[in-house]
Specification:
heterodimer, A: alpha/beta, 8-stranded parallel barrel, 13 strands, 16% strand, B: 464 residues, 8-stranded parallel β-barrel, two-stranded antiparallel sheet, 14% strand
Chain lengths: 376, 464
């Protein structure tokens, strides 16, 4: 794939997971009224809270917000479809990237590609896509399909991403010509069949949507995936007492080595901050008394200055971090107030400007359609 | 009777009383409007300076917000599953390229407040539990304004874009769709107050799925179900399952006949006859003065049916290249080379008996001395009402007073400004005649349509 615009050098990327009341399983119970309580999930109050959180993240200067998919029940209220949540906030924001996660394994690749391209168009080029391949057999039962052996899940994911990427290229950027002399709305020589052949499915194409503003919306995947990704998310749980930077160094280096220089490497970090006069450790203890929260990755519990220092250190070994706030409203507010301004001032973080695409923010060029050379 | 707890506090639609009568919605003798942002076919004029983008989000925003300003009941999106083809090639003459309906409507939900948001989604190439969850998500994001227009595509040509391929026989399309609806309703009904999720299990001829309902119901309980099938089987399916019919019967006599037939079928399905609302597709051509009407109609039709489109239309029936023919000349003297038209040009061309239809067209052309283009314009003008705003309003009065329709689903022939005259001129003229509301009676789609609770949620005690 050739790039039609040269990649730039982005600042340190700061993503935030906007998932209902927060990453902590007890965030619901401790949530403030106004959309963050369990009994409010799915109501207009919860939708308003989603909009408030993404707008707060945009104001704070985050590069992008991510939205988790949750098809199977947990001990918390279900969440609305991730692509639709991202689409809902798209016209209410103008700079922040919008990155839904999708359990892609059993879904229709054609629909997934159309949904993400539509999000990219509705957001004027701010769409990303976190692909994941959870081998939980209950997901297969949801679709009424045979469960895929765990060993084959990543290969299937790679096929799904490859099919979507081909579909996204099937309309050349200038395919719609509106040429009165010949009566043609589009030029069929600039629209191509994908003819994708995967291990388990075929997709004929072309896409049902024209090429979206980014051409290729940004694909995020788990570190180590064989799928063609633009960025990977790295987990790095630390041993008790081990500094986060030390714990993260090896997994980040491995991801860098696996995925090559062009792929952005982003560390997942769980965050609990001092807030409203309550120490972070005490907030966490209060939440933990209601429900345990097993660390999935590095976890920072402390004050804003410490998080600022940590992010500054991580900037030399990662391309960015994704912060999972323990409680969305509380921790996001603190980060926006006390962590991001000094990082921006120090030139470590560059916040997206209105009109930037997510590819711009990530320093990724806009790729031309792969069919361009074939056609010419 | 099983008693369910409802997990929302406000019912935003009227409950049926003991006699099954539902207050609310449009009062008797009125009509409502929906708008269909079509995105395919030749009915949208793309070749004038006023023709805006068919795909930019701004076009959708403008049409939806204009419709809401005009107190429209619903904003309606189709679904594309495969780019249309003509004689073995991509069909490049018509508008094409449509966003995913649910994704687009989720975005539009943020910019509108009251208008219903209708997503066409086929029951064949979507997975039932995934689809049910996406529809429910839109219903919750829009706070009770979502609808599902259930379509039953079954051909293998479309299936080439999907995992299962052309797996469904045409004859099975409605029994299959009924299964998908039944699963969706189980997903929507599953959750009960105070519990995070409830199991959904479904095992039939078509599906063996194990799922969960993790989301609460919206203020309208379920997304409203739209349906458009017109065969006898399709009508029975609609009468048994749907709440709104998007029909093709827009002429007054035709609409009356269709309404009587659908109401009879609805009663036969064990439902009250007003359980089903009927919205024919419609096109309005609004002129400033009586003397401009004929010219404006001609202008619209000639821009919809270009010389190339006229030839392509005839080619689709003949099944062969007719590019050597003069669009302003007569129909080909030769016969069609196909028996039956295929699937690749969309529903309007599906399964026509080629020789028979060609004979009809020839007779029509001879009778009226039509050229190819004039004939194609004639064939594509059966729908549509033209006049001044006052004149069109007068023509719509009998539809309302005779209850031939509950409303019209309007396809604008220009994007994004095609609703401006309708909202600015026709709506006030209808309001003056007392056949169009002056404010929304509700803030959910179900409430504005005057519908009862969903079929699986009736007879339950209302709870505070």
């Amino acid at each position: 794939m050739t790039a039609s615009s040269p990649p730039g050098t982005p600042g340190f990327l700061l993503l935030v997971a906007i998932d209902a009341a927060g990453a902590h399983p007890a965030a619901w119970a401790e949530g403030r009224p106004g959309g963050h309580r369990a009994d409010e999930q799915g109501t207009s109050g919860a939708v308003a809270a989603l909009v408030r959180a993404v707008r707060a993240a945009e104001r704070a200067g985050f590069t992008a917000a991510t939205f988790t998919d949750q098809l199977l029940p947990k001990d918390a209220p279900g969440v609305l479809d991730a692509v639709l949540r991202a689409a809902h906030v798209a016209p209410l924001t103008g700079a922040i990237g919008l990155i839904p996660a999708v359990q892609a394994l059993y879904a229709e690749p054609f629909h997934l590609a159309t949904q993400v391209a539509s999000l990219d168009t509705a957001s004027h080029g701010r769409a990303g896509w976190i692909v994941s391949a959870d081998p939980d057999p209950r997901l297969a039962a949801l679709y009424g399909r045979p469960a895929l052996p765990a060993a084959e899940a990543d290969g299937e994911l790679a096929d799904i991403v490859a099919a979507a990427r081909r579909l996204w290229d099937t309309w050349e950027d200038d395919a719609v010509i509106r040429e009165s002399a010949t009566g043609r709305y589009y030029d069929r020589t600039k629209v191509h069949y994908a003819d994708f052949v995967g291990t388990r499915f075929l997709v004929k194409g072309p896409a049902i949507v024209p090429r979206s503003p980014q051409g290729q919306p940004v694909v995020f995947g788990p570190a180590g995936t064989s799928a063609e990704v633009d960025a990977v998310l790295v987990d790095a749980p630390a041993a008790p007492g081990e500094p986060i930077v030390a714990a993260a160094a090896e997994p980040l280096a491995r991801a860098r080595a696996n995925h090559g220089a062009g792929v952005r490497v982003i560390l997942d970090v769980e965050v609990v901050l001092d807030a409203a006069g309550v120490r972070a450790a005490d907030r966490l203890a209060a939440l933990d008394r209601r429900a345990g929260w097993a660390a999935k990755t590095a976890r920072y519990v402390g004050d804003a200055a410490g998080l600022e220092a940590l992010l500054g250190q991580l900037a030399s070994i990662a391309d960015g971090v994704r912060i999972a706030p323990a409680q969305t409203d509380v921790d996001l507010e603190e980060i926006g107030r006390a962590v991001l301004p000094p990082l921006r001032q120090a030139g470590i973080v560059t916040s997206p400007r209105a009109g930037d695409t997510l590819r711009d923010s990530l320093g990724l060029g806009r790729p031309e359609s792969r069919y361009l050379e074939v056609a010419r | 009777m099983r008693v369910f707890e409802t997990d929302h506090t406000r019912r935003a639609f009227p409950l049926a009383d003991d006699h099954g009568h539902t207050p609310g919605g449009a009062s008797h003798g009125t009509i409502q409007f929906g708008v269909f942002f079509q995105g395919v076919n030749s009915s949208t004029i793309w070749n004038t300076p006023a023709s805006g983008s068919q795909t930019d989000f701004e076009s959708f925003r403008r049409v939806a917000q204009t419709a809401e300003r005009g107190l429209f009941t619903a904003f309606f999106l189709g679904e594309g599953l495969r780019l249309r083809e003509h004689l073995g090639h991509l069909h490049e003459l018509d508008v094409a390229g449509r966003p995913d309906a649910l994704t687009q409507l989720a975005a539009l939900a943020a910019l509108t407040h009251t208008i219903g948001l209708v997503a066409t989604q086929n029951a064949t190439y979507n997975d039932p539990i995934d689809l049910a969850r996406r529809l429910q998500s839109l219903d919750l994001l829009s706070d009770g304004r979502a609808a599902w227009n259930v379509v039953t595509t079954d051909n293998a040509w479309t299936g080439e874009n999907f995992r299962r391929g052309g797996y469904l026989d045409h004859a099975d399309r409605y029994t299959h769709a009924a299964d998908v609806i039944a699963i969706a309703r189980q997903v929507w009904d599953a959750r009960q107050a105070g519990r995070p999720a409830a199991r959904v299990h479904y095992d039939t001829k078509y599906y063996s799925v194990d799922g969960v309902g993790t989301l609460p119901r919206s203020r309208q309980e379920h997304p409203v179900l739209f349906q458009a099938g017109d065969s006898a089987e399709g009508r029975d399916f609609g009468a048994a399952n749907a709440e709104v019919i998007f029909s093709a019967h827009s002429g007054l006599d035709d609409a009356l006949e269709f309404a009587a037939d659908m109401r009879r079928r609805t009663v036969a399905a064990g439902r009250p006859d007003d359980d089903l609302k009927i919205f024919p597709g419609q096109e309005f051509i609004v002129a400033d003065t009586e003397s401009e009407v004929a010219d404006k109609v001609r202008w619209v039709r000639e821009h919809q049916i270009t010389p190339q489109t006229a030839i392509a239309f005839v080619e689709a029936l003949w099944g062969t290249d007719l590019s050597g023919y003069d669009p302003d000349g007569p129909l080909p003297a030769t016969d069609p080379v196909v028996q039956v038209t295929g699937e690749t040009r969309g529903a309007g061309f599906r399964a026509a008996q080629a020789a028979q239809t060609a004979a009809k067209w020839r007779a029509l052309a001879e009778e009226h001395k039509f050229s190819i283009r004039e004939l194609v314009i004639h064939l594509n003008s059966r729908r549509g009402i033209a006049g001044t705003a006052e004149g069109i309003a007068d023509q719509l009065v009998p539809y309302a007073t005779q209850h031939a329709v509950d409303g019209f689903n309007i396809t604008p022939w220009l994007i994004p400004s095609g609703l401006d005259d309708i909202v600015n001129k026709l709506v006030p003229a209808l309001q003056e005649r007392g056949i169009y509301w002056s404010e929304y009676p509700s803030d959910t789609l179900r409430g504005n349509l005057g519908l009862r609770p969903p079929l699986t949620r009736r007879g339950e005690p209302a709870r505070p």
